[in-house]
Amino acid sequence: MGGLEKKKYERGAATNYITRNRARKKLQLSLPDFRRLCILKGIYPHEPKHKKKVNKGSTAPRTFYLLKDIKFLLHEPIVNKFREYKVFVRKLRKAYGKSEWGTVERLKDNKPTYKLDHIVKERYPTFIDALRDLDDALSMCFLFSTFPRTGKCHVQTIQLCRRLAVEFQNYVIASRSLRKVFLSIKGIYYQAEVLGQPITWITPYAFAHDHPTDVDYRVMATFTEFYTTLLGFVNFRLYQSLNLVYPPKIDSQAEDELKPAEGKEYAMDSESYLEKLSGLSASLARAVAPTHEDEVEMDEFPVEGETAELMDAKKKEQEALEKHKKLFEGLRFFLNREVPREPLAFVIRCFGGQVSWDKSLCIGATYEATDPSITHHIIDRPHLDKQVVGRYYLQPQWVFDSVNAKLCLPVADYFPGVLLPPHLSPFVTEKEGDYVPPEKLKLLALQRGENPDEESEEEEEEEEEEEEEGDNDKEEEEDESEKEEEMKLQKMEEQKTQSTQSNKVLPVKVTAGKVRVEDKQRLEQEQQSEEKRLAIMMMKKREKYLYKKIMFGKKRKIREANKLAEKRKAHDAALKEQKKKKKKARQA
Amino acid sequence: ATSASFPPFTRLPHEMAAAESFLAFNPAARPGPAAASRRRYRGPRNRKKGWKRWSGPEAQLGREIGDFLEDVGLQERAAGGLISEQIFGITPNYSPSKIFRIIFGFFFFCSICAHQTPNGRKEKRRRQFWEKKAEKGIFPREERKLRARLNREGDPKKSPKSQKPPELGRFCDPLSDPLDAPLAGQDPWFLQQTKKMPVQRPPRLQVKPSPLPPVEVIGQGGSYNPPFQDHQVWGGFGGSWGGIGGPGGVLRGFWGVLGEFWGVLKGFEGGQVQAGHSAAPGPVPAALWAGSGVTRGHSVVTPGHSQDNDKARSRLVTLQHQALFQLRSLRRSLRFRDLELRRRRLLRERRRKILETAPKRLGRQRWGLGFWDLGFGPEGSVLRDRFKSLQRRNLIEPRARARSGTGKKSKFGGKKQKFGAKSENLGGKSPNSGGKKFKFG
């Protein structure tokens, strides 16, 4: 006997989820269309907590969506467009099959299209929301803009991505919002700060492209479709916020400069406009002409709950930022033709520098290599035959390292043919106890305003003139410094191990005059160690185990850091040895 | 007169009583109704539909009553009433206990029939439980919902319907759809359902499925001109690179916690111990060390003191000394315990965070250490990197791409499938029937 039978899987978690196939059937869409719809609308699959329950006892691998989400999708107007498109394709195929060309033409004219504007608006209710999601959009657009036009995806998509990426780059230049650059093996990471939001994106190197086979291009293309729409809106809004004309136009004054002097047209004007823009060398036109007002200092009202110190710190930070933004102001760069033009031009322009290149390399060159006002000439070959006096010849890494260091680094390390210092990532901050490479230490010192190796550099120059003595001197000095370093390391280790070793014998001198003092010290030490030993003895077994483990870990960490340092030393020594040999060979 | 009218086959009461134990010798003779009830019921033979069978003491009673009633009916049909009543008024042959049993059984049977509600006892208990709760003002969910709805309907602010007739005398745009005019200020839900208004995106969809950052910047070792120590890290010194344990990997948090903990401990070892030594025990050690020196001095200078006194004092001193050590170690262990708890909490929190950020398993593929090695090394294509990142953030399901070469289908099968797919958008019918329709229609 007993009431209504409870049926399984009719309540609880099982009713909250829906399998992908059922959802697809409910929406009457094919699987690719369903995938596309989910990506566009931002509906993601869910992993139920109890998959077996939801799956009605089966353990088959299925993808689940929330039923609520699918119900929400039912209202989407795009679903209808997808169905219409399917019908269109069917009709078209039929017409082709029957060779009814009139029908084909008619169908082509009435091809159903859809727009994603309303989805962008719906997914990003505020502009800040859109900015937060810009990382993905930018990475995707920059990636697609480098694709070869070989049919992996539509050429229009590639062109659109290129246009949007260039527009965004121009915005970053105009607003000077770039903060960090990092060249990795994969690509270049950039970080900009737009309206207070840090935006990070990666751009691949041009032409270095292999097509992985395990990537679903359709999925990526769908993402790109959505992100291009988003980026279009965002660009428009950003240009407006800076009072720039959108779609971007080159400043008329700059345009005159850009006109080829000989009258030879590079290409038709309309065609080359995007290329001119992507040259990144010209400033953009403003909607309202900028009025150069006297810089008005804003009154500052202290916000409640903020101390004077905080205010000061903020002010200092602001000043540092302003300084960083004007890093290359007044400098004129020239890029040699073997140098990657676009990233360098972008970075240099972002920090206020002027940049040009050979006019056969790319459109948009503003001055020639012979211009005497050039201050920095970026080359990437071992040496240049004809060097002009009055400018630095540097390797491209100098630009990126300077940007990351927030100051113009000493140029000596970046002369052509010189072994470059490592390119450190600005996205990494070392924690206490980590191994900090000496290069980074040097950099930090430079940022603080010290100049640690001024002397040694001078000496190096001397050394080049008078070889033997200088060399010896320097070596001795270096040896000394190394010894010091070693001592330091030893001390460090001692300090760290001291706390672990309970009964450590300390070197105690016995002198006639200071017996009393020494004794006291020793007593103290003894007491301390005694205490420690007792404490360890009193510990519970578990605690003791833990304690030992921690101590072991600590020691290991020190050991590893030391090992790294030692390796570094060996490496440096080997380098030096090589140098010496070379020098001797040169002498002989 | 009455006895003459009895039909010959009618049994008299005494005969009836005797018939209870009577069985004819004739093998074809049917046992009487009383004999049927005497057979013991042994429960369902095949154990099927046991709930349908009628068994137990009440069943026996019921059967007896059935027999009795059958008998009565027989008599009534034959004689127009109970013979015993007609003759004696009461049946002398039935023992009083039997009569009682019969009557009681009858009423009991009736009562059973009246109360056969499923789960009656449970329901009763439940009713009582909710009655008690209702006295305290707690109601079951259904009732609460009903009450809430009543309240809502009573509230004029929340009711969306405040339909006013369109005001006359206002400017009327001749080009606008007159049907759109009364839409203003209407129930948004109604408008959404009738496609007059876009459906609002529910706020739960604004949350990303994973808190991982969209662009994870590669570690130092990924630099095109990496510093010396990163060659070591990537080249196997650290042992694990890429994947979950590598730089920028998920497990990095764990090592971070350990590092922090070491930092804390270091502070504890260095700073606090010293502080404890100098300040915390305060007066005791000062008195101790000073006192011992003084006493010794005294004993040397003035020999007048008794040895016992000295001994006692020294014992006191040692006792104090020991107590002090004990106190200190106690404090130390307490502090250690505190530290340990704090460390555990940190670890727990960090682990929770990692679990939150870790990709969920959405498809056939498991998230193991090996899964990401291909994607997140220093080299490789940005495209794959982006794709893996999307998978990792649960934006798309992780799946191995089906290779086009495997599983060749016959031409016929492929065609059939196509028809099915087409039919689907015709009217959402099953693929086969739709296909046929399409073919012939």
TrEMBL record, chain B:
Record field: compositional bias (Basic and acidic residues): 141-158
What InterPro entries does UniProt report for this protein, alphabetically?
Nop53/GLTSCR2
* Region ranges (Disordered): 30-53, 141-171, 394-441
Q: Which GO terms describe its molecular function?
A: 5S rRNA binding
Keyword flag Nucleus:
yes
Its localization reads:
Nucleus, Nucleolus; Nucleus, Nucleoplasm
Per the record, the coiled-coil ranges are none
Q: Name one GO cellular component term.
A: nucleolus
UniProt xrefs under PANTHER family:
GLIOMA SUPPRESSOR CANDIDATE REGION GENE 2, RIBOSOME BIOGENESIS PROTEIN NOP53
Protein name per the record:
Ribosome biogenesis protein NOP53
Look up and give the organism this protein is from: Catharus ustulatus
